Amino acid sequence: MTSLRIQERFVSVQGEGALVGAPSSFVRVSGCNLRCVWCDTPRTSWAPEGRAVELDELVRWCAAGPRHVVLTGGEPMLLSPAAELSQRLRSAGHHLTVETAGTVWCEGLEADLISISPKLSHSTPWDRAAALGKPKLATMHEAARLDLELLARLIERFADGWQLKFVVRTRAPELLTADLDEIDAIVTALELPTSARDRVLLMPEGTDDATLRAGYLAAIDACRTRGYRLGLRLHIHLFGHTPGT
């Protein structure tokens, strides 16, 4: 039987993106080709854990929950069985969101919404990897974190349902400016029309109410002037920075 290594699965509400607030079943795979310095799911990347779960069991589990299903990670696109799972879930009538960093192509993958989180340069864990005595982790991440050709291919493949989510640093104006410059360069390189800019979300870095609120306020002007969308992080406001939410 075909299986996926699953780190956790739970039912909650979507906390980010265009479907924020929608009751959803979350299936989180374990395994990632990146090592973001601020990764909020380190048990799928820095210290991966989980168990193999047969696709039949996952389909049955999702059938007992909401219509909306989120396949997330880690990086689901690394695992070829994710394509079969996506096909089966959509055939069963689920609305499927697939969360990806946009660095890997998964042949046969289906999705109603492809939620792409390209990683900016501040995500590279130079100091963290060095402190662990594993500098190659940072080198690996930096080499893989951004693939403009693949991003364009994903947007074309899922033209009817895509979003780009960028984590931005808002604790200092110069950091936000640097991140916005990178995002603007990516949007320009992808030749996104002005009408599509509301599919580009700015998500302030932070894991508590106060930090996020300050981040939202700091990012508002950039949204106004550029046409980007402010990306809320509802799950943190509701449950805190807690697994399984």
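The record above closes out task 2.4. Task 2.5 opens with a second protein, given below.
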Amino acid sequence: MEQKEVLIGPFKQLLTMCNLPDKGALSDKQLEIVEYAGIWISGDKIKQIAGFDELRLVIPEDVQVYELQKEYVCMPSYIDCHTHIVFGGNRANDFAMRNAGSSYLEIAESGGGIWNTVKHTRERELDQLVDITVLRANELIKQGVTTVEVKSGYGLTVEEELKILRAIAWANKQSKADLIATCLAAHTLPKDYSGTAEDYLSDIAERLFPLLKAECLTNRIDAFIEKSAFTADQIQDYFKTAQNMGFDITVHADQFSPSGSQVAVDFNAVSADHLEASTDHEIALLAKSDVVAVALPAASLGIGCTFTPARKLLDAGACLAIATDWNPGSAPMGQLIASASILAAMEKLTNAEVLAAVTFRAAKALNLTDRGRLAKGLLADFVIYESDNYQHITYRQGSLQPSSVWKNGEEVFSKN
């Protein structure tokens, strides 16, 4: 089939996010901004970025031209590299109890917590979970997010985890976003499991991992390393098995207490996520490694705890990504730019650092090299705002919504 070619522009400002390092602090002066730019798209990829008038002179006659009549800003579409959007029910009562002073244990004993979501998710049929996932992915698309990592972890049996991961696979075929599945069967020890934590992990590794490979459901294994979930010692064999089978490792690390970052570095994980409790020791470990540090500011807001030490991580030389952690318990917001902008204010992050954290650095957390920047040969994934200044994206703290979102060279959302 002949590839469709399109030219769109002119953009008042186009941020390529190119020529920026994967790690460390960034200045806004380092941002590459092309003024009055055009994007020439061929199929699902970018063919060229240059001045709009310059491109109009060289494109063939059969290239479709979208000439913009207002002032717009364009940048790579966003990558949400940590979500839990496959879930049933809600935990609004947890939030109310937490704000009224109840502890995590008290909430769990009253019927809340992760186990509450597990029960509601298990009650959903496969097709219901598919519909739920597509609906939430489409909400993210409206925000400019076109690649979404999606975790399991609310099944906690081989059969229920498979149901969730199959739902993600089916939802990926129905949504315009790319959904990247991650197995989080090691989310917590299920209350209805009669054995030890070690028994549970061994059972999952032995029975579930081969099925994940056979059905090509995911190449990513995650675990929650925390006193209330699995310890650093307990997770060793589980991760060794996963790594030996060719899975990428990612870790829920240092949310309430440190130890997960060390495991992430030891296993050369692609990312260590949360990090609210990371000390200078963990920050130094991550900075010296290739592990992406993923901040989840909405979880800090939802729980009412400290934020990930993003400023210290960047200054130490780490690679920082930012994600929503969209889940029914600690992070029900599901708003990437709003939560990232709040983190920027609290941690004093530059616009360049924030935008890198939701584009190419977030792509690195998913081992993706074909997106997150706007350049020849990369996917034509970009977001367009009606504005004359890219700074308004974070300045408006999420209230400036995209006018248009493009994925794989196709407009997948428009306000008009």
